[in-house]
Amino acid sequence: MYGTILIEIIGGYLILFIIVRIQGKTQISQISPFDFVSALVLGELVGNAIYDKETGFGVIVFAIVVWGILTIVTELLTQKSRFLRYLFEGKPSIIIDKGNLDWKQMKRNRLDVDQLQQLLRDKGVFSLQEVEYAILENNGGISVLKKAAADQPTLTDLKIKTEERVIPYTIVSDGEVLSKNLQAAGVNEEWLYTAIRQKGIQTPSDISYAEYVPGKEIFIQKY
Fold first, then answer.
1. The overall pTM is greater than 0.85
2. pLDDT at residue 29, rounded to an integer
């Protein structure tokens, strides 16, 4: 009995992992109401199948694969058709338009003022007076465009010369040297050892995290 349950759990886990990987990262970061329901159904299929004595591993595989195919086909269709995209994913709603609350959209989306204020605070906005436009996205998040008077000036506005930004390379993680990232950053392990010894560290195993931006000083966090 326990062996069968173990096999079914491992098998269901692997199949769910494959389905999620095929569906793509946007399923997690930009989940829509349809995606949410789809995830619930997939989990329910596996859970019921594992603890139902009359259900075998083959049924679990079949159910997950069929549901996975349906969700993938739906995603492909929504990419091709704007109508189907709106049908399955909905449309963003303008909650604040030119500084004014749109009560019809608030009611349509079952959003009250307290909930709106919480969403705005998550964006660093503590007063509705600062907002020119606020759009409620399909995933339940909110996008905010502040009024010009309330917005902070950019470096371009202040005519301050800027330098090109680059993503730092993680070169040591949990005491392990990431050789590929060292190579991408244009340095090698010999350079790394020299750099960390200048910081009083003898070996990368004493480092929990280190990052490097070419041309700048190495950043190190020890255990």
1. no
2. 47
